[in-house]
Amino acid sequence: xxxxxxxxxxxxxxxxxxxxxxxxxxxxxxxxxxxxxxxxxxxxxxxxxxxxxxxxxxxxxxxxxxxxxxxxxxxxxxxxxxxxxxxxxxxxxxxxxxxxxxxxxxxxxxxxxxxxxxxxxxxxxxxxxxxxxxxxxxxxxxxxxxxxxxxxxxxxxxxxxxxxxxxxxxxxxxxxxxxxxxxxxxxxxxxxxxxxxxxxxxxxxxxxxxxxxxxxxxxxxxxxxxxxxxxxxxxxxxxxxxxxxxxxxxxxxxxxxxxxxxxxxxxxxxxxxxxxxxxxxxxxxxxxxxxxxxxxxxxxxxxxxxxxxxxxxxxxxxxxxxxxxxxxxxxxxxxxxxxxxxxxxxxxxxxxxxxxxxxxxxxxxxxxxxxxxxxxxxxxxxxxxxxxxxxxxxxxxxxxxxxxx
Length: 405
Hints:
CATH architecture of the largest domain: 3-Layer(aba) Sandwich
Helix content: 25-40%
Strand order of the largest sheet: 3-2-1-4-6-5
CATH topology of the largest domain: Rossmann fold
CATH class of the largest domain: Alpha Beta
Distance between the termini: 28 Å
Structural class: alpha+beta
Order of helices and strands: HEHEHEHEHHEEHHHEEHHEEEEEEHHEEE
CATH superfamily of the largest domain: HUPs
């Protein structure tokens, strides 16, 4: 077995201002100990979903181990599941959201997850059963931006077995989640099926290799989309101008860029289904207005404008983040809330036309409110100049769709 701490360190793209997501299971506990063995001083976070009685004790174990290494640790609790949708998927989305907020509060730029080669293989099989395309079948991304944080998976080249062997050999403990044997969950059934495929050569390493080949194909398609994006897309105050020249690009490139726009304007865990995106493309190439997944496409003198749908924006919140895509810079009073400017706010901005932005774009732009009184609307040019609004994620550059996460 090669030097795992050195391999872990090599797998990290960014080791400073680092947070580790540690549940207490074998993979994440190995990540914690490997980071320490590699000489790093990360912060550690655990999410207790409140779904298993053992979870509190597992979080306490992670806290104790972190403290023994002099590392800061915090347990976050998820208590707002409404018992609708897929439990594992809802828990995953809540976990990401909670951890991203935690990282931003602590000033951390990067969060590391403990996914392994086995996770890559299992995900490949699960998505294969759903008829996924290149993006879905490609290996998990080792690096991506989401929620204002850079996420990393430094252990994709390691197997679950070698990590446990290293832990055992080092006299280190971890917790076993009993749900990992519960056949009600698709991932557990897939794990069992993968074990039966091993005798014919379809083991985790081979499936991860195939997923890696598809990841290379995805990168090439993304690079082509990036090139077309710089020629055909213009970001403007949170909306996107689509030049007519986009419709001369390959259809796959059109699809990727529309998905990118949808996920940038209306952040979601997954892009809309292929059939829905195809129907949207048909409408857009014909020059018609259309709406999908909280994003509107309307005619513009420069082609089409994509912007947030009014009825889909998030309600008012406290803090500096709003609608899953905006960060407000500047001192926000404790009594203030962030929300859409809306018609009520626009009526308090008499000079909004001087911005040169269309009314539809300003209606869904971020604003700072004290009940019914507008404090600031940075994109509308209203309020103290100390306030500004910036998107959490860039539109341009590599921006893999959520399915690859």
